[in-house]
Amino acid sequence: MSLERKDEYDHGEWMKEKDLTPVESVFLTTLVWMDRRFRIVDYLEILETLYYRVNLQMPKSHTEQYNLDNKFWYWYPLYALGSFSTIAYVVAALSGALLGFYYAPGTEGDPSLAYNQLAFIMTDLNFGFMLRSIHRWSAQVMVAAVFLHMLRVYFTGAYKEPRELNWIIGIILISLTMVFGYTGYLLPWDQLAFWAGQIGVEMSLSIPLAGEWVAKLLFGGFSLGASTLQRMYIIHVFLLPFVVTTIIAVHIAIVWIQGIAEPH
Amino acid sequence: MDSSIDDTDTDADPEASAREVVVPLQLYKVVTVFSTMFAVGFVVGGFIVLDTATQRARLSIAEADVPLAILGVVMIAAGAVVYAFSTRFRAEGMGKPKDGSDEPSNNG
Is the whole-model pTM more than 0.90? Predict the structure, then answer.
């Protein structure tokens, strides 16, 4: 018996005693060779340690306490959806701020000022096509990621006590995300936007008792016009950014304070 | 030869016996990280090559660079194969959730 402790990093020894097919040994040998040269796994482990240092959990997480990591590993990729939504939101905010330099919510003229500005961004402005595409795609990704994030929270039971408040805040956020999407959808003021707006007015009018009041407040009247676009613009670029950013901050702060819920 | 005979035996009933190789956790991490990197690189690179060969699918079939296009498709397939192959490696205790579990399957 040798004095040296048997090292689990000694892949050569380990592979000899294992019954592997030729393809498997070549595959593993290649990857180990890569790992010896580019120690990416080590750097990822440093990141993992940093993550746990930063996210001190109180109380100790379920999986840590009962050493259940091996049972739950297949859920972990879905735990990235919340971050994914946040990143999409930040990207949309930055690209939206840049788009705001060139867009104007005017309905005068035929085609309208708004549509002309859009055509300018898409065809004449340097990187304009890319900028608007980034804004549109990040919006699409955010809506999808937020919805899938909600499914993950539901199916892992992460909404349960003591996290009910954050679940309700999340419902508010997903609703506001859709309002964000709808108001942005109307801004190009093309046929698609106009008739989507028409549907919005009629949906508001169908609300019992408060319908007419809601249509006037949100759409500036019963038929679409300059005031409709103006209101959609202000909701999209002024009202919602403040409100949603604040609620996202509260949402994430509560996750930080309570710790991430483990599946149970 | 022996191993190839074994393979044909297991291929006869692929659903029932997908091969699993249990490896140390450290090696499992190496396999996951590097095979994912290779798979992503091959698939993305394959699409770039395919786009180059067909000018983003704008060329007619006669004008397209056929060998390059085939190379692109082969790269995409290679990425998929690397990823699929890597899924047979598992760390200890990392079985499929429904198999080999000490929990009963009746939700307690």
Answer: no
